[in-house]
Amino acid sequence: TPERLNLALASADSPATASAVIESLEDSTKFRITKIGSQSTYLDAKANTSEDGMKHTLHVTTVPPIPKGAYPTVIEISTDNPEYPKLNIPVTLRVVGRVQVVPEEVVLYDRGSGAPAESMRFLNIMPGSVQEFTIKGVEVPLPSIETEIIARPGSRYLVKLMNMPVDPALEGKEIVLLTDIPDMERFSVPIRIKEYPTPPAVSR
């Protein structure tokens, strides 16, 4: 219990731990753990056994640094009980930054017409390994760009970026989000200017 370990919001740079209990309900299913292995180098697993040998508590800890991404894996436990020689415990491992931002970059599409164009974009900011925080402000590369911060429950925010000119000069510039997270009071979302995708030709 539980049947699957959940490390779905593990930090990229700080250890995270999840635990499961394996309990024998009768003497015939009692066992000793002879080996614990992990299919992932990003996880370390250890177990504590009760004095009567009926209960084993498995502790799984991440081993940072870990690149952001999903790494589903399995903890393999070998025992001396022939009825249960191996127990496999699935692990959900998804490594995130301290805060999640979707999308990870602000993309503006240049239609190549030469005519001035403006766009509105949205940033969704959600908890990562830091569960509670505040977005205190937004810094933009041009004074004409307007912003609005919409707070939602659970430290979730929608940031509206309005009157964004589709200007090649904005390529590589940044939207800066201001927070109350220690050592992360400022973090940036890059702006990218891309050509408007050409629709595929329709065959007749």
Characterization of the model:
Strand 7 and strand 8 (86-96) form a beta hairpin. This protein has no helices and 16 strands. It is mainly beta and 204 residues long. Helix content is 0%, strand content 55%. Strands 1, 3, 6, 7 and 8 form a five-stranded mixed β-sheet that branches. Strands 9-11-14-13 form a four-stranded antiparallel β-sheet, with no helix packed on it. It has strands spanning 5-11, 17-23, 33-38, 43-49, 55-62, 69-70, 73-79, 86-96, 99-102, 106-110, 118-127, 135-139, 146-152, 156-165, 174-179, 186-195. The radius of gyration is 25 Å and the shape is elongated. The mean pLDDT is 93.
Key terms for this structure?
204 residues; mainly beta; 16 strands; elongated
Question: Quick summary of this structure?
Answer:
The chain contains no helices and 16 strands.
* Secondary structure category: mainly beta
Helix content, binned percent: under 10%
User: In percent terms, what proportion of residues is strand?
Assistant: over 45%
Parts with pLDDT < 50 across at least 5 consecutive residues: none
Number of strands: 16
- From N to C, what is the helix and strand string? EEEEEEEEEEEEEEEE
Rg of Cα set: 25 Å
The largest sheet, given as strand count, sense and whether it forms a barrel, is: 5 strands, mixed
The total of helices stands at 0
Mean pLDDT: 93
> What would you call the shape?
elongated
The CA-CA distance between the termini, in Å, is 59 Å
